[in-house]
Write a structure and sequence with these properties.
The chain is α/β, with parallel strands linked by helices. The chain is built from 14 helices and 20 strands. The structure holds zinc ion.
Length: 458
């Protein structure tokens, strides 16, 4: 799989789209064998972790799972290019003027707190980027018809990425990278969810995107703006990802914008993990991603039953091998194949979701997007985990855990200031922000880790 050309990736991904499940499986298995060999010889971390395993691994279940915190703790031994160091990568991502540029001139870098609360830094090499992009372009657009594509072109082909601009996040850095490739054509632009809503609306009205991508919570608020007549855009399609899309929100977006709604379940670790078909089902791209729903002891969970988490193996990326890597998503594999007839299994995701917060100022309600807040806090040096809880109409409580060696009080002060600054840009200057004595924790009932929620009754 060395130096896959974009054309080769297209041919390969296209061919399998209508193939048989056995074809998909045989591709997966040969890629897996290559990846394991590669990781053993090029990643000190995996070499050591697998040292007791037989030379020829015959079943995935022989391989111990890995977690984000474990990999992040062994970052320099994990990566397969010795020029990459955690120190260097951290310096790169702390510089916001480098969003959209390549680290060491050749690697895409994205940061995430993901769904476990532990921050992660993920690196992709060129081949992986080519494959993920091609999967998105070919399979991720399955629901678009040719007439939609013509309409997109007729409307000028502009693509708006409504995303968090507070750090090197996948959506933002991807949009910036494409923009920087052809700075003058204006076909793609990132719009900040940290902007005051009126600014975001004004900018989108000026830009008139043919395609708009973003988080479901952000698009839901924009739909309200469109309904109220302040926003006036006519996108052909809305591309969603990163948050659970509820059927009522999907319906609302489709009817308010008169646009096709496409959803994607993926993550920073594997952007094109699934695609949505005409039947509205998520199919796992199992030729490039191995997807194993497991229980709390990492034992396989059969189709039809809800998992505790999922182990993924990304067969496209060698620079930072992810082999049986735990994603804390709860999923159910469908026991039946999809009506569309594609050879890829169908998954339902319980999904991660944070609440939209509502604060009031001078009799006006201000909606605050969970992602806007979340990404501001996770970019503050020293923050390990956090949770933001609205505990009253004008109050936000912060649970905070800091990295070892950092002064808790200083990190807290920085968090508080960043939040106050952000709220001030939204016209909210009278909020009380207080620190909780509790550390961040999973919801004891659902076991889910939520970052932002409302915990009071109006
Ligand atoms: Zn289908």
């Amino acid at each position: 799989m060395e130096n896959i050309s974009p054309l080769k990736a297209v041919m390969e991904i296209w061919k399998v789209k209508r193939g048989k499940p056995e074809d998909v499986l045989s591709r997966q298995q040969s890629r897996l064998a290559d990846l394991i060999n590669f990781a053993r010889s090029n990643s000190q971390y995996y070499a050591q972790k697998y040292s007791e395993l037989p030379e020829r691994i015959t079943s995935l279940q022989q391989i111990p799972p890995v977690t984000k915190s474990e990999l992040m703790d062994h970052f320099n031994d994990w990566v397969t290019d010795p020029e990459i160091t955690i120190e260097g990568v951290k310096e790169f991502v702390s510089n916001m003027s480098l969003v959209g540029y390549l680290y060491l001139g050749r690697y895409m870098v994205s940061t995430t707190s993901g769904s476990t609360g532990v921050p992660g830094i993920f690196i992709q090499d060129k081949d992986s980027d080519t494959i993920m992009k091609t999967l998105m372009a070919i399979r991720g657009t399955t629901k678009l018809k040719w007439s939609d594509i013509l309409k997109v072109a007729a409307k000028g082909g502009r693509n708006a990425a409504v995303c968090s601009t507070a750090g090197h996040f996948t959506a933002f850095s991807t949009a910036e990278r494409l923009r920087l490739k052809r700075p003058s054509n204006g076909k793609i632009r990132a719009f900040s969810i940290q902007s005051p809503l009126s600014t975001l609306v004004k900018e989108l009205n000026e830009y008139q995107p043919a395609l708009i991508g973003g988080y479901a919570t952000a698009m839901e608020i924009l739909a309200e703006e469109q309904k109220a007549g302040r926003l006036n855009i006519q996108p052909v399609a809305i591309l969603l990802g990163g948050e659970k899309l509820y059927p009522n929100v999907r319906e609302k977006l489709g009817s308010v914008f008169q646009a096709r709604v496409l959803d994607l379940y993926g993550g920073t670790e594997a952007t094109a993990m699934t695609f949505e078909c005409e039947e509205g089902q998520f199919h796992v791209n199992t030729d490039w991603i191995i997807f194993e729903p497991v229980d709390e002891y990492y034992q396989p969970v059969p189709p039809g039953k809800q998992s505790h988490s999922v182990l993924i193996t990304n067969l496209a990326n060698r620079i930072q091998p992810l082999i049986r890597y735990e994603l804390t998503d709860r999923v159910i594999m469908s026991p039946e194949s999809c009506k569309c007839g594609r050879p890829f299994p169908v998954v339902q995701v319980e999904g991660r979701t944070d609440d939209i917060l509502k604060f009031s100022t001078n009799g006006q309600i201000v909606h605050i997007l969970p992602l806007a807040l979340k990404t501001i806090v996770e970019e503050i040096p020293g923050v390990r985990c956090f949770q933001l809880i609205q505990t009253a109409p004008d109050q936000l409580t912060v649970r905070l855990e800091v990295d070892e060696g950092n002064l808790r009080d200083q990190v807290w002060e920085n968090v508080r200031e960043a939040l106050l600054d952000y709220f001030a840009t939204q016209g909210l200057t009278n909020l009380l922000i207080e620190k909780s004595d509790e550390l961040p924790q999973r919801n004891p009932k659902s076991g889910k880790y939520q970052h932002v929620w409302v915990d009071y009754h109006e």
